[in-house]
Design goal:
By secondary structure, this protein is an all-alpha fold. It is built from 23 helices and no strands. Helix 11 runs antiparallel to helix 16 and helix 18 runs antiparallel to helix 19.
């Protein structure tokens, strides 16, 4: 959930470091030129190896984040919990990130450094998943909650570290491609989880001969192998980065974030509307996916495998379409219009799921497209309404209230489902999207009346930036 906004902060830092990197490369010792291509930090094969490690760095975190969604039926049955308690597993992930999103970059820059910080955050992810699995093995649900809390401490901060590595190793135009590939790998991790964890549970059940907490715990422990894989990637990446630092005389990567809570008082009304759009929109997406599998089983009579497949389609579509929509928004501009299209499409999807029995693949595919489009159009708007020195604070605050909203909505969604059923839950999600729609419309008129640039075309923005640059030179 941090990867979208961190990409924007990283891009700003990349330009400042590019010339220094080139100069350092020029001073590289002579023997470096004799290294094989895959061992030379300046050569493409080596940098592709580093890119692969960066992409897999967050694979385990995103795979295990939605373990509860992939195993909702099993978790509720084996642990004997209601839906509100089940959704608390997502809330416990979000609670630490209400605060940590302000300090993840600080810890990387000033305390641990990128290499040690990445390893520490990866360890938190691994330990959290192990505690989560042990809670199931011991039939102790509060221990599962604590595992998700520890997992959350590492998960979001690891995304910050991942993007910091990207800024350190890749510059200029190639940086956008790198962030797109990292985002796609995150979505692949979520998709694989949705489609394989139920199968793993079945195989463990066949092995043990019964269902119950032990079967669930072993399944979650097996899923945790992906976290160990990501930790291994973090260790290898730390070694390669340390080696490149020595060979190229380059510095460790930094986030470039400057967090000042006093900047909040200077935020414009447009920025607060962007925050409202963010919270209300994502509140109708992630909690829905968390509860989606059983919804498709009960309403549309899907099999468990079919329900897992359709519940993961949002992530499947997002993997290839996020870079495509990102390029589209970059080329055309008009960010508010794109956000409006995404919100309206999402509302249509929820209404279809709530009030019709049409094939749900239609609604879920539309939701996947809308989700991808909104991320590409909404997050960049923050950079248009706040000065550069306040970007870190703005994105940190946006991520903070997003996690706060997700934690509260997750618990509320579980309570609504326990007491009212899926129809009321879908009406609730539709209401959240309607609030987001109202905020988008307000943002459009506020931007128009104040002469803001949020809805400029890309061509107009580029022309005015050239004029401003020329006047600055004069």
């Amino acid at each position: 959930m941090a990867e979208d906004e961190r990409a924007l902060l990283g891009s700003a830092a990349a330009g400042e470091e590019e010339e220094e990197e080139e100069e350092d490369g020029g001073r590289s010792p002579g023997p470096l030129r004799a290294l094989p291509a895959v061992c030379d930090p300046r050569r493409l094969p080596h940098r592709l190896l580093v890119l692969a490690l960066m992409c897999f760095l967050g694979f385990g975190s995103y795979f295990c984040y939605d373990n509860p969604a992939a195993l909702q039926t099993q978790v509720q049955r084996d642990m004997k919990v209601n839906t509100a308690q089940f959704m608390a597993l997502y809330a416990w992930y979000s609670w630490p990130n209400v605060v940590l999103c302000f300090f993840g970059g600080f810890l990387i820059d000033r305390v641990f450094g990128i290499r040690l910080g990445t390893i520490i955050f990866s360890i938190f992810v691994c330990v959290g998943q192990v505690i989560f699995a042990l809670g199931a093995l011991l039939n102790t649900f509060w221990l599962m909650d604590m595992g998700r809390f520890v997992f959350g401490i590492g998960g979001e901060s690891l995304a910050v570290a991942q993007n910091t590595y990207a800024v350190s190793w890749f510059k200029g135009k190639e940086l956008n491609l790198v962030f797109g590939l990292q985002l796609s790998m995150a979505r692949i991790g979520s998709t694989v989880n949705m489609n394989i964890m139920g199968w793993i549970y079945s195989r463990v059940q066949d092995l043990l001969g019964y269902t119950g907490p032990s079967t669930l715990g072993l399944t979650l422990m097996i899923g945790g192998i992906t976290c160990l894989f990501s930790l291994t990637c973090a260790l290898i990446l730390a070694y390669l980065d340390k080696r490149a630092e020595k060979l190229l005389c380059k510095e460790q990567g930094k986030t470039g974030e400057v967090i000042k809570l006093t900047d909040v008082k200077d935020f414009s009304f447009s920025l607060w509307l962007i925050f409202v759009i963010c919270v209300c929109y994502y509140a109708a997406v992630f909690p829905f996916i968390g509860l989606g599998k059983v919804f498709f089983i009960e309403k549309f009579r899907f099999s468990s495998q079919e329900a897992s497949a359709i519940n993961s389609i949002v992530y499947i579509i997002s993997a290839p379409m996020s870079p495509v929509f990102g390029l589209l928004v970059d080329k055309l501009g008009k960010n508010i219009i794109w956000v409006l299209c995404a919100v309206i499409t999402t509302l249509a999807s929820h209404i279809m799921l709530a009030f019709t029995f049409w094939n749900p693949w239609i609604a879920m595919c539309l939701l996947g497209l809308a989700y991808s489009l909104l991320a590409c159009a909404l997050w960049p708007m923050v950079a248009f309404v706040v000065p550069e020195h306040q970007l870190g604070t703005a994105y940190g605050f946006m991520q903070s209230i997003q996690n706060l909203g997700l934690a509260i909505i997750a618990i509320a969604a579980g309570m609504i489902l326990d007491t009212r059923g899926y129809l009321f839950l879908e009406v609730f999600f539709s209401a959240c999207v309607c609030l987001s729609l109202v905020a988008v419309v307000m943002l459009y008129f506020v931007n128009h009346l104040t002469g803001g640039d949020l809805n400029w075309s890309a061509k107009k923005r580029e022309e005015l930036q050239k004029v401003a640059a020329t006047e600055k030179e004069i």
